[in-house]
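Input chain follows. Return structure tokens only.
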Amino acid sequence: MLLDVLNLTVCYDKAMLINDLSMGVDTGELVSLIGPNGAGKSTLLRAITGLVAWEKEITRRSAGRNVTLDGSITFAGERIDRIPAHEIVKRGLIHCPERRRPFREMTVLDNLHAGAYLLKEKAEMEENLDKVYQLFQPLKARSRQISGTLSGGEQQMLAIGRALMSRPKLLCIDEPSTGLAPIMRAEVFEKIGEIRGLGITVLLVEQEVSAVFKMASRNYVLSSGKIIAEGPGDRLLEDEVLRKTYLGL
């Protein structure tokens, strides 16, 4: 198991966002987290990649809201819920956040270089850059363009491309289809499938159930911070209550 989450609970003040949740991702899989808004999907990704622990430390220092995180998160055989987010990145677990968030005043190329800040060899960075350009060809044509002027779909490509620059072992992608036109949405999903084809393990948070079920190895359905169902898409779709109540189908 590349990623193993065991009995994870996350609370912000008195609100329990993740409730005794356990899940896992094997090497080479594309696993999806689906469920309604507010189910805890993004919070789970943030906990896995160390951002909840970071916020817990910040709020402790500033006497802000009370953030608690219990349970364990293991990545590549090492427990990571007790180490800083930047150390988690060094181990190859990369978070591509919701709503893209490029460095808007920087060029496309500078954004991609920023994603490779951990690489020590220039040749390795250039090799990764070539792979990103092969995957997302519009980015190469716009390499000198200011990122804030890109379309929403191009910004999403840039966000994923920037995450790929560090050669992740596990890429966590949060809601990549948000705000995209249907044609661009389909293209982004196609590229995510190609990323898996490159041998990169993917954990995908998404609400576009029909698209995700076609390409995911397994799916976890979340509701109110709990996993209420797990399995391949075709099996989950056989459950009429699940389809209507939690999948919106």
